[in-house]
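Need tokens for this chain, all 97 residues.
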Amino acid sequence: MALFGNGIKMGTGIAIGLGVIVLAPTVVPAVAAIVKPLAKAGIKTVLMIFEKGREMVAETVEVFEDLTAEAKAELAAEATAAREAAAQIVIPEEGTV
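Here are the structure tokens for all 97 residues:
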């Protein structure tokens, strides 16, 4: 009985295999015609997302560079103002106070 059951399973497998071999020449081009545009659209989408990401990173870097330059300019201005304020301070000589 078990041998007969395996024979049916094997026969079914052979039938499916033959069906695939017979239908493959017509099915593969039809599937390829559907899959190729989908794959191309997916690749285009990934490229667009990648490019948008690069633009966002470039803009972010530019903003940080601008902020850094402004902070350095403010520090330099504060240092200059402090030096000028220190130069204007008159230190009284000994014995005059």
